[in-house]
Predict the 3D structure of the following.
Amino acid sequence: MNFELLIQLLVNGLIVGLLYGVIAMCFVLVYKSTQIVNFAQGEFLLVGAWVCWAFLVYMELPFFVGFLLTLAFMAAFGVLLQMIVLRPMIGEPIISVIMITIGLSIFFQALMKWIFGVDPQSYPQVFDTQSVQIMGLNVEVAYLMSTAIALFIMAAFYFFFKHSKHGLAMRATAFDQQVAQSLGISVKHVFAMSWGIAATVSATAGVVIGLVNGVSDSLSIMGIKVFPAVILGGLDSIVGAIVGGITIGILENLAEFFDSQYFHVGNMYDIAPFYVLLIILWFKPYGLFGTQDIERI
Amino acid sequence: MSQAATKIEPAKPLLSVNNIEVVYDEVIQVLRGVSLDVPEGEIVTLLGPNGAGKSTTLKAISGLLKTENGEVTRGDITFMGERIDSKNAEDVVRSGVFQVMEGRRIIEDMTSIENLKLGAYTRNDKQINQDIEMVFNYFPRLKERTGLAGYLSGGEQQMLAIGRALMARPKMICLDEPSMGLSPLLVKEVFEIIGKINKDQGITMLLVEQNANYAIRAADYGYIMESGKIVLDGTQEQLLNNEDVKEFYLGGGNEERKSFKNLKSYKRRKRWL
């Protein structure tokens, strides 16, 4: 058994898992506050990564300036998307709204291809050294940054929802919209804010992944990949999203390890999470932390 | 003599509901011309049987009607001289009217303090922590309960709901059945605190109740609603001494009417209109 490879893969799994957790959190955030299953989640990453790439390559801005501009752009993007496309759909059947998010997903994938072409592009060199040795493990600097960013975002989410007025308002809206309104909370603003936050945070993940793997269509697949994470954690639990994300990240890499060492099936990396998804739905349809919909009749 | 003179002079109403009609889902008419005045600093109660439209009246005032697909189709509601009938719920809260909805409706997956902080959502000043202490002064038992609000008892949840309303520093609180589902002792306690808050803070209260006994005794003025209309109104004294109110709402009443022979007149009288 190749322990070095196993540990390397586990560390990779943890790092990628944290990013999955962040993306899953955005998904849960939108689902919780607006009851919309956002199939365009992956496109937030894609659009964010391309916009940042454009800032860096076309306008030749320094990385952090371009990155911050991207975040600002994506916040506006999320809010406008909600206001223009989704707000008129409030009160319509939920299935129609889901179809709209699928439409948005296709639209933005095509739009990005139209603007930036179909070839994958890589970011300009951001860090001087590609990778560092930590305790004998080869860790890419971009991964270190991604871990730091992921942990920062999670801490920020915690403080936002626990201590800030707007975070509390969003939780109140998720709990009961009528009560929220009776407290003076504008549900419209909360919806817009949740889409804005989801887009901004997803874009961060998109840029980070883009730094490592380059920007291409495959980023949008992330939006599908977080489904197992979200379902494992429970659709409406932020903590569950993080736990689910890390679990799926590690599982993927374990699958990769056992495949490359023993089974030699190939492609286990991509498929394993979805097997897990199936098994979870069998035994725990509400996920680990999800609210079980029990109604007293 | 001079005291009597000042009493006769009508106080300018803080809130005045003027002949409103409310329709749900564009077809179901619930209120058929309701008018009432709530003078500043007083407790006014709105009584009536189930389905009379009491809650609907409150929701029309607080703007929550729109969240239930209801609409004020006629008449107007003015608060401090400003029309609020077409305002959104959140704007009504900002203009100073706060509704404590029926069934308490606290946010169960938050702590009491988080619930209280949410009450102060519309405020931007720095005195929120001070006000949390003030709420704990009124309801000391809330301070001991640090867990999730969903685990509080019914009475504690009602206290939290009233405390949450105080946090908004409203000029007027609309209370929808604060006694619902509470034990008699708790009902007494809650009503005492309502009276105390009204006296201490000068917050005007509009109180919708089924528990007529307590409500009339707590209130300065009362209205009685039936099938979407106001059928009777009067001061606390007038209501307490009114034979019909005694019989229909307070229990007891006149001995003679207890006989079967008078049942017809009872039924006839119950309709009032």
